[in-house]
Design goal:
Elements (H helix, E strand, L loop, with lengths): L4 H10 L13 H9 L17
């Protein structure tokens, strides 16, 4: 889903997209807007990229 998460989550919440579980990334201001709109979201732990030294 990537950075399109916020738009897709809002579309699902509004009934414009089929209901399903999704995951992705959102900028902090987009996450706050989702919460303010009543969209249920939950943060996931951040996993830094693996180092390949």
């Amino acid at each position: 889903m990537g950075l399109g998460f916020a738009a897709e989550a809002l579309a699902i919440h509004a009934g414009d997209a089929p209901e399903r579980s999704i995951y992705g990334e959102a900028r902090p201001e987009d996450a706050r807007a989702l919460i303010d709109d009543g969209v249920p979201v939950a943060p996931l732990p951040f996993m830094p990229p693996r180092r390949t030294n």
